[in-house]
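Quick one, probably user error.
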């Protein structure tokens, strides 16, 4: 039998053609559903949208093609928000596997190569029992391109733009009978930019600061995936990757600024995984809405290891203030231990490692019941010599889950699930999930309710960070007395999908209890036995910040999406998101709870695009995408609010080569921020948008594909033909 690419539950990439393109989605339930019949509300960014938009990064793609996301990019990664909740509450998956790379509560999304994305599926809220505690805000499943043909593929994409921005992508893949291989390389670099030379540092306003709005960076990644199919019903795989990123920051020189100028930042990621899938025979029935797609029962096993290390690379002599392990006194009572670090030296700040094992199965039962069951084990290890009391910390979590879809009635789908989570420090918790979809012609009505359970992370429990700025000392302190966070998510959706028009309106309410946040505290509030290194008499200008549970918090809002196919070649889209948030936060200065807006909240966000494509003489395909995105002001507790903005961009695509030929070329040319919007707010208070103004970019891609498509499990002949047409 011809070789086929190993697929996980969450890696379906099929596109069907009726009068409009209808994707098959899998993220909400772990099983295939036509998008219009997905029982859990799912937002999709298709490959056609990605190709037309031409975004250089996942941040640019999500903020430009949806209205629910907000970003504040920095050296430590992307401070992402989804419907008011930040990184810690968003689960990012790549082909169904969670991304690893948490530094300071932020994710380095440079790990995701935008040229390698087939599609993106977004499920908001903790609506599925299939995912862990990170998914209180939602799940982003990034499905990558797969080589599904017998033969080999060579792919090169080079993008260059303003600020010496270079993005390089290469793929070499082959399938030879039972064996397959896919090797991928990506490289990104940018010189950075400065929107203003004004900076508030150490109580002084500098007018000639060297600090950049976005610092120079460069990264590269190499990944390999091997597949093997020893028999018709057994697939196996092994894969690994290595990633390195450098953040080059302006040198301190004679500027009276803080110590960030004396070292650069470096991140090293590595991953390895293996697993397989055993098919157990045909299941009962077909995928609803597509009688050609058969369903197969299977068991799947995945074992993953991930490592994320974070270093300081010193560029000038720097005296690091550290506390010896086991010492009961520290900087608060005047005892310092200064260690000189010289240019060229490196120092590990944290090394986070994770091992995950997952066993899962899908069984298609009589009476249109689909059962999805699984078990997980996760072990987290943190090595932070100067940032934990003992130098290391660890934790483990286990989970059992079951989810059943009842689809017997033509007009009704009910999906219900339970997830049982056990944590070494916080015991056992059962969280239910239920959703229902009612169908009436081209209309769909969805209701959902789910509970979430999120235990404190290793960093929130044990991490400590000392930062000195002139005469002021700041401490971020872990708290072993934290309680787990819980949530209740409610949603209601009405959707219309016609031949030319698609419209969706979703209202939601997300209630969180014991929400964890980094808050200002006095030394006397730090419980005995917790981060004892920072206990002292409180003398000196010291401000301590500790992770604490808020009383409660909630986010609520409405998301609206519209799509109108004006003619065959022209499609208009628009999205709008209204958001409001509330949280009860303890105010040390007032000694009472106060009601606040969650940091980063913007009440209104929107995006829109006009996408046109046309093929001339069957050899040249032209496309143009004019799009805009905007936001009202963003609210913050400190440092002022982020300014409102609206940004326009245009991207053109030029595909050369005839359909069916082995060699194809693509040229992209575009302009971002056409009207040159720039936020000149003094650093570090530019909290609205950090765009540098008008920029230009160009992309050249060449693809050589020698081979023919082979059959795959769960992929009908009709679907294969439609994929080839794409």
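Nope, works fine. Designed sequence:
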């Amino acid at each position: 039998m011809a070789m086929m690419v190993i697929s996980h539950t969450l890696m379906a990439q099929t596109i069907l053609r009726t009068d409009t393109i209808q994707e098959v989605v899998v993220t909400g339930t772990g099983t295939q559903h036509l998008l219009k019949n997905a029982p859990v509300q799912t937002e999709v960014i298709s490959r056609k949208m990605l190709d037309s938009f031409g975004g250089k990064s996942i941040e640019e793609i999500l903020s430009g093609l949806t209205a629910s996301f907000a970003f504040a990019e920095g050296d430590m990664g992307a401070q992402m928000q989804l419907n008011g909740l930040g990184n810690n509450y968003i689960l990012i998956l790549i082909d169904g596997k969670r991304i690893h790379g948490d530094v300071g509560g932020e994710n380095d999304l440079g790990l995701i190569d935008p040229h390698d994305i087939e599609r993106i599926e977004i499920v908001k809220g903790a609506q599925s029992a299939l995912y862990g505690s990170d998914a209180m805000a939602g799940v982003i499943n990034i499905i990558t391109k797969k080589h599904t043909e017998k033969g080999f593929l060579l792919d090169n994409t080079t993008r260059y733009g303003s600020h010496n921005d270079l993005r390089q992508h290469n793929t070499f893949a082959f399938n030879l009978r039972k064996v397959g291989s896919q090797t991928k390389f990506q490289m990104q670099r940018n010189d950075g930019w400065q929107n203003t030379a004004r900076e508030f540092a150490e109580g002084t306003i500098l007018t000639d600061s060297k600090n950049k709005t976005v610092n120079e960076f460069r990264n590269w990644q190499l990944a390999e995936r091997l597949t093997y199919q020893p028999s018709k019903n057994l697939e196996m795989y092994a894969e690994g990757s290595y990633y390195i990123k450098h953040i080059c920051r302006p040198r301190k020189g004679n500027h009276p600024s803080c110590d960030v100028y004396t070292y650069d930042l470096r991140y090293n990621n590595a991953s390895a995984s293996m697993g397989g899938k055993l098919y157990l025979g045909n299941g009962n029935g077909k995928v609803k809405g597509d009688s050609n797609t058969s369903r197969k029962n299977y068991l799947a096993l995945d074992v993953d290891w991930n490592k994320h290390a974070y270093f300081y690379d010193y560029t000038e002599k720097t005296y690091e203030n550290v506390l010896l392990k086991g010492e009961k006194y520290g900087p608060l009572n005047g005892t310092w231990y200064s260690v000189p670090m010289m240019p060229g030296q490196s120092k590990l700040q944290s090394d986070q490692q994770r091992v995950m094992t997952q066993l899962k199965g899908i069984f298609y039962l009589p009476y249109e019941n689909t059962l999805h069951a699984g078990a997980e084990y996760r072990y987290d290890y943190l090595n932070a010599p100067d940032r934990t009391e003992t130098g290391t910390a660890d934790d483990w979590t286990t989970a059992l889950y079951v989810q059943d879809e009842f689809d017997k009635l033509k007009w009704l789908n009910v999906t219900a699930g339970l997830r049982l989570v056990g944590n070494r420090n916080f015991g056992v918790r059962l969280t239910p999930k239920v959703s229902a979809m009612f169908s009436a012609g081209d209309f769909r009505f969805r209701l959902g309710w789910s509970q979430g359970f999120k235990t404190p992370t290793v960093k929130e429990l044990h991490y400590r960070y000392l930062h000195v700025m002139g005469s002021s000392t700041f401490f971020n302190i872990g708290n072993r007395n934290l309680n787990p966070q819980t949530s209740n998510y409610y949603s209601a959706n009405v959707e219309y999908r016609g031949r030319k028009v698609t419209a969706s309106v979703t209202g939601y309410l997300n209630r969180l209890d014991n929400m964890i946040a980094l808050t200002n505290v006095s030394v006397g509030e730090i419980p005995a036995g917790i981060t004892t290194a920072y206990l002292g008499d409180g003398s000196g200008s010291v401000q301590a910040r500790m992770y604490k549970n808020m009383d409660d918090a909630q986010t609520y809002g409405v998301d609206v999406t519209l799509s109108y196919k004006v003619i065959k070649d022209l499609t208009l889209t628009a999205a709008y998101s209204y958001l409001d948030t509330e949280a009860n936060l303890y105010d040390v200065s007032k000694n009472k709870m106060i009601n606040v807006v969650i940091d980063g909240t913007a009440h209104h966000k929107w995006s829109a695009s006009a996408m046109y494509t046309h093929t001339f003489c069957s050899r040249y395909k032209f496309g143009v995408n004019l799009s805009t995105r905007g936001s009202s002001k963003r609210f913050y507790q400190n440092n002022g609010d982020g300014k409102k903005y609206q940004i326009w961009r245009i991207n053109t695509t030029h595909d050369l080569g005839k359909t069916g030929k082995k060699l194809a070329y693509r040229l992209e040319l575009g302009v971002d921020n056409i009207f040159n919007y720039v936020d000149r707010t003094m650093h570090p208070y530019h909290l609205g948008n950090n765009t540098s103004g008008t920029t230009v970019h160009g992309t050249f891609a060449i693809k050589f594909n020698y081979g023919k498509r082979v059959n795959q499990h769960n992929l009908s002949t009709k679907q294969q033909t439609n994929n080839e047409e794409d």
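Residues 15-725 form a domain with the Maltoporin; Chain A fold (CATH 2.40.170.20).
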